[in-house]
From TrEMBL:
MF (Gene Ontology): NADPH binding; oxidoreductase activity, acting on NAD(P)H
Domain Enoyl reductase (ER) span(s) in chain numbering: 10-323
Entry keyword set: NADP, Oxidoreductase
InterPro entries registered for this protein in UniProt: ADH-like_C, ADH-like_N, ER, GroES-like_sf, NAD(P)-bd_dom_sf, Quinone_OxRdtase_PIG3
CDD domains assigned to the protein according to its UniProt record, in alphabetical order: p53_inducible_oxidoreductase (cd05276)
Superkingdom as given in the UniProt entry: Bacteria
Coiled-coil annotated spans: none
Name by which UniProt lists this protein: Zinc-binding dehydrogenase
Stretches for region Disordered: 1-22
Database matches in Gene3D superfamilies: Medium-chain alcohol dehydrogenases, catalytic domain, NAD(P)-binding Rossmann-like Domain
One Pfam family cited in the UniProt record for this chain: ADH_N
Length: 328
């Protein structure tokens, strides 16, 4: 099969095509003939050499895929063969075929094309777990999301809208703010021209908000905490702005704030299976009914994975970038 890999970490230009054996599904696994693969920020970080695959994972980037099941592990019946699914994987998505745990797959419903299906698992699993499970989000609360037009940001906007949350997002331009509002955000702040802490105070009339989904970390953390109301929750899912933050622990104690965070890729298969099952029950009906769709930016051919990464790193995208896999 064709795949896109690299010999040494570096810029987008390090990607090169390679020919690899088609992987074989083991117990509890299926082999998926990939139609589209999602492109995510962790793929970029892996390419740069800062996010190695967990033990046992494919070294090929790609954490979410959509396509057709063409083979099943020895312990599974063949009834899933021929079904279209999307799946969360620990690597291997930038290829013509990929193995996935059957418990990490979701059936693609009628009306959802495979490009959209491939753009769902990584952001949907991440946002659902961190906003609703770790962040305890409830209807009527207000959520602050940085990077409002990113894949994570747009998914957070859409899920928040489905479950009765008010969203405030930050973006790097007026054009992106307008896009975030079109996608469904209630408020959008241009962080380059406004102080988002002051804007949150204005929007909430000084009361603060209940939850922050943080992808920046670093010196954003104390500013995020200043946006929170008493008993507010702060959930970190990336450290794009730095891994360390200076905090006033006395304020955290006095205001009873909760700080948490998580990563997804290295979590146990059993955890991901439980998360997938919860999403299938609570969120997937909205996908089946056409009420939830990912915000799509652009599709690149698999062979142009480097161009897709360059496009992501340029920062102009709105929503999800995917790779289209053409089979000979």
């Amino acid at each position: 099969m064709k795949a896109m890999g690299f010999d040494e970490p570096g810029g987008p230009e390090v990607f090169r095509p390679e020919t690899l054996p088609v992987p074989q599904p083991g117990p509890g696994e299926v082999l998926i003939k990939i139609a589209y693969a999602g492109v995510n920020r962790p793929d970029v970080i892996q390419r740069k050499g800062h996010y190695p695959p967990p033990p046992g994972a494919s070294p090929i980037p790609g954490l979410e895929i959509a396509g057709t099941v063409v083979a099943a592990g020895p312990d599974l019946s063949g009834e899933r063969i021929g079904q279209e699914v999307c799946a969360l994987v620990t690597g291997g998505g930038y290829a013509e075929y990929c193995v996935a745990k059957i418990d990490h797959c979701l059936t693609v419903p009628e009306g959802l094309d495979l490009a959209e299906a491939a753009a769902l698992p990584e952001t949907l699993f991440t946002v659902w777990h961190n906003v609703f499970e770790r962040g305890w989000a409830r209807d009527g609360e207000t959520l602050l999301v940085h990077g409002g037009t990113s894949g994570i940001g747009t998914m957070a906007i859409k899920l928040a809208g489905l479950f009765g949350l008010t969203t405030i997002v930050t973006c790097g331009s007026d054009e992106k703010c307008a896009a975030a509002l079109r996608i469904g955000a209630d408020h959008a702040i241009n962080y380059k021209t406004s102080d988002f802490v002051e804007e949150v105070k204005r929007i909430t009339e000084g009361s603060g908000l209940e939850l922050v989904l943080d992808m920046v970390s670093g010196d954003y953390v104390p500013r995020n905490l200043a946006c929170l109301a008493e008993d507010g929750r702060h959930v970190t899912i990336a450290v794009l702005g730095g891994m360390t933050a200076e905090l006033n622990m006395a304020q955290i104690m006095a205001r009873r704030l909760t700080l948490t965070g998580s990563t997804l890729r290295a979590r146990p298969d059993e955890f991901k299976a439980l998360l997938c099952d919860e999403i299938a029950q609570t969120v997937w009906p909205a996908v089946e009914e056409g009420k939830l769709r990912p915000e799509m930016d652009r599709a690149f051919p698999l062979e142009q994975a480097g161009d897709a990464h360059a496009h992501m790193e340029a920062g102009g995208h709105i929503g999800k970038i995917v790779l289209k896999v053409a089979h000979d």
